[in-house]
Amino acid sequence: MITLNGKSVYGGIAIGKILFYKKKGKSVKRRHIENAEAEKKRFQSARTDAKEELKQLYIRALEDMGEANAMIFETHEIMLDDMDYIESVENMIETQKINAEYAVASTSDNFAKMFEAMDDPYMQGRAADVRDISERVINHLCGAGEHRLKLSEPVIIAAEDLTPSETVQLDKDKVLGFITMLGSSTSHTAILARTMNIPAVIGVGEGLSEKYDGRYAVADGTAGVIYIDPDEKTMASMQKKRSEEIQERQLLEEFKGKENVTRTGKKINIFANIGNISDVGLAVKNDAGGIGLFRSEFLYLENDTYPTEEQQFRAYRQVAENMAGKKVIIRTLDIGADKKIGYFNLAKEENPALGYRAIRICLTRPEIFKTQLRALYRAALFGNISIMFPMITSVWEVRQIKKIIEEVKTDLKQQGIPFKEVVELGIMIETPAAAIISRELAKEVDFFSIGTNDLTQYTLAVDRQNTALDAFYDPHHPALLELIRMTAENAHAQGKWVGICGELGADMEMTETLLDMGIDELSVSPAMILPLRKKVRECE
Ligand code: PEP
Ligand code: MG
């Protein structure tokens, strides 16, 4: 048995024969040409044909796989209009008097290498996209049609790398899994594997080679491991793991694509809570209607110094783009209390949960807050971003936030940096004070999201970190339920929507009660979305 390790992209176990997919290596030959103008025209016409083909692919993918997946083709169409790309090809044709095919292939190589050399894994993932669009143009220049891999039996597809269009065009019913030598976990192929629910292990490296074509294998997408010629013991344990996963998935698959609607017709939104960019895949996989809470702290926790505006912009933009137009609520920095970060140099406190945390840090260190707001307003151009502020206790705080936002917008305008002018703004209701004055707060913002984890802690005066107090930490306490009811009523009186993003949102004993109170949205961990949908559909 041979064991190979790679990156896990999508869980699940694939067992079957390997088919090693070799691209029909179109070796592009360099030719000398006389008429550069005519060659540039050939390039432009191939580019137009490639764009038309991408339009058709978009329509096909939209029907088969939904908007999130189809967007890849739209993105590719836009990439083909990139002026740097076009100018690079045309300059090569003009200055070196070379054929269009060779100029496209060289440009593709240069651009892909440039992306691969970048530090950011998201940008590295774009190398595959450049190669994909270039190959499409070269196909048209050569008069070759689209290359589609025909599968006669179910197989595990192995490849050096797969372009997004190759992935989408595979016959899904015959693909047991994907295993690739290259690929980043944020490449579109990886995103597609996740949304197509196909086990995938990528970035396996040189260990995966053509010599395994036709060999029997197990790809464990959850662990990111491939076993070639598995021994009996491995096979038995993998089969067991697979049947458990299948059972669980089948139950939930039934609820994918279904509405979150009660028996009596009340519809609500079920969104996902995420704490990291890589969780977006989980949200999509579990059919989240949006992201209800993106805990942006991770960007700060992972760094040894303040994350830059650019770093933050890329992260927010990526989440927004991956969610393809669905709502993404990003919560601003909620640091302090249990979440300590060395470089913030926060003083030791007697009562950190009641201390210098979240919005209190942002309002007293506006330079940190402004960097995050700039990144958020810029990223909002790339999707449906809303911004939410944690630990609010007063109207004054909200007005201060809005003042700082205006300053940020003025700066961006003066610097000529594009940003979205109007972004939905909400606050977390996680202190008793906020719930009690929710009538006033509702006039100031677009929505509320109730953070029941902190609201329980502050209402009952029970430290949520102290496990010795578990018996006293009761999120079903009537005082808490009364605060939630009040908050919902006050939000609705002002025509604003109200959600819950604390753990109580996933507590199915409470679903019926929360729906009765008029809660419009529940944001829960991705794995809870489908079980909760099932529950909502059973509610009266
Ligand atoms: C909450 O307090 O309920 C909440 C969602 O925020 P966090 O758990 O991140 O404090
Ligand atoms: Mg909280």
Structural class determined from secondary elements: alpha/beta
Largest sheet: 8 strands, mixed
β-strand number:
16
Tell me the quaternary state: single chain
Strand residues, percent: 15-25%
Strand order in space, largest sheet: 1-8-7-3-4-5-6-2
Unreliable spans are: none
Shape: globular
Cofactors, ions, other ligands? phosphoenolpyruvate, magnesium ion
Percentage of helical residues?
Answer: 40-55%
Average of the residue pLDDT scores = 90
Distance from N terminus to C terminus (CA atoms, Å) equals 54 Å
Alpha plus pi helix count: 20
- Rg on CA atoms, Å: 26 Å
Can you give keywords for this protein?
alpha/beta; 46% helix; 20 helices; 16 strands; 540 residues; binds phosphoenolpyruvate; binds magnesium ion; eight-stranded mixed β-sheet; eight-stranded parallel β-barrel
Summarize the structure.
46% of the residues lie in helices and 15% in strands. With 540 residues, it is α/β, with parallel strands linked by helices.
Kindly describe this structure.
By secondary structure, the protein is α/β, with parallel strands linked by helices. 46% of the residues lie in helices and 15% in strands. It has helices at 36-65, 67-79, 83-96, 100-116, 121-142, 164-169, 188-195, 232-253, 279-285, 297-301, 309-322, 359-364, 366-379, 395-414, 432-436, 438-441, 452-460, 478-493, 511-516, 529-538; strands at 2-5, 7-10, 13-21, 155-159, 175-180, 200-202, 216-220, 225-228, 269-274, 290-295, 327-331, 384-389, 424-429, 447-450, 497-500, 521-524. Helix 6 links the parallel strand 4 and strand 5. Helix 1 (36-65) runs antiparallel to helix 3 (83-96), helix 1 packs across helix 5 (121-142) and helix 4 (100-116) packs antiparallel against helix 5 (121-142). Strands 1-8-7-3-4-5-6-2 form an eight-stranded mixed sheet. It has 20 helices and 16 strands. It binds phosphoenolpyruvate and magnesium ion. Phosphoenolpyruvate binds at residues 293, 295, 334, 430, 451-454, 501-502.
